[in-house]
Write a structure and sequence with these properties.
2 helices, about 120 residues
Length: about 120
Amino acid sequence: MVKSNELRIGNKILFSYKEVTVTGILNRLIYCFPNDVYDGDRFNTEDKFEPIPLTDELLLNVHAVRISLENYVLYNMELRSRAKWNYFSIFVDNIYLTQIEYLHELQNLYFLIYGTELI
């Protein structure tokens, strides 16, 4: 489950195993595009959505550069991981910022730092 208070308009999440884009948030209701994934229910609570885990393929698709087996660079943001962990530690200029596990977290952090959308 993904919490609506962690989302911004434009975030990518999963609904019924399909990637959707958040288009609106009202209380704990999440609206998304494409809206043909709704199973006939126009109003979707946060318990119906799942976050998208960060993967090698996903990081490469957002133009991150692999610098070692487990580490990536996205502009001046370094994403460090360990094979046994399910998250990335984020560093900017060798200063630790936070840990992230999901695409929407990376989108939010990227927007906060650079003021532009990641994808």
